[in-house]
Design brief:
Blueprint lengths: L8 E2 L9 H7 L5 H8 L4 E11 L3 H7 L7 E10 L2 E11 L18 H6 L5 E2 L3 E5 L12 E10 L2 E9 L10
């Protein structure tokens, strides 16, 4: 996701715009990783694209309530089902969140972040926001718009932002 910032809206602002299938995937408050594993009938994979310390985009820092000049750990992955790229995910983890018991988030490699988030009893999640991203805003080279969702997770009051983009090759979301 590069280029101009998307317009993020809450569920009640998009209700009439989405099909029931799109709503089910976009506003599912459970673990997307678990849902994708189920949808792929076990043919699930994850590829780490990048992970580095960098400044978050302005809209990401705003969502986190942090200073956009402060660095964060930014992790980008692709989740695959049946060998197809289904979801591009970008996580922004402020440096203070990476301290104490959450310092192991620096070394996730190709392990899903969702498994750690949803197994932490302190986890709280902000309302889910959605955006329809245009091809020039997407990380992958695609020629169609794609739905994205994001929310801020708090683990023991420490925030991190997760944005997930449902790529056009994700069959359950975009039937062919």
């Amino acid at each position: 996701m590069h280029q101009a910032f998307p317009q993020w809206l809450r569920e009640n602002q998009r209700f009439n715009e989405l099909s029931s299938l799109e709503r089910r995937w976009l506003f599912n408050r459970g673990s997307l990783t678990s849902a994708l594993m189920s949808a792929s009938q076990g043919e699930f994979g994850l590829q780490l694209l990048s992970q580095s310390m960098q400044r978050p985009r302005f809209d990401e820092a705003q969502a986190l309530g942090s200073n956009p000049r402060h660095h964060a750990l930014v992790r980008e992955i692709v989740m695959f089902g049946h060998g197809q790229p289904w979801v591009f995910a970008r996580s922004v983890i402020p440096l203070p969140t990476l301290s104490g018991q959450f310092r192991h988030f620096k070394n996730l490699d190709d392990r899903p972040l969702g498994a750690l988030l949803f197994n932490d009893p302190s986890m709280q999640r902000s309302p889910i926001e959605t955006a329809l991203l245009q091809p020039q805003q997407l990380h992958h080279q695609v020629d169609k718009p794609a739905w994205a969702r994001r929310s801020v997770f708090h683990l023991r009051a420490k925030p991190l932002l997760v944005c997930e983009v449902f790529l056009p090759s994700f069959d359950p979301m975009y039937p062919q």
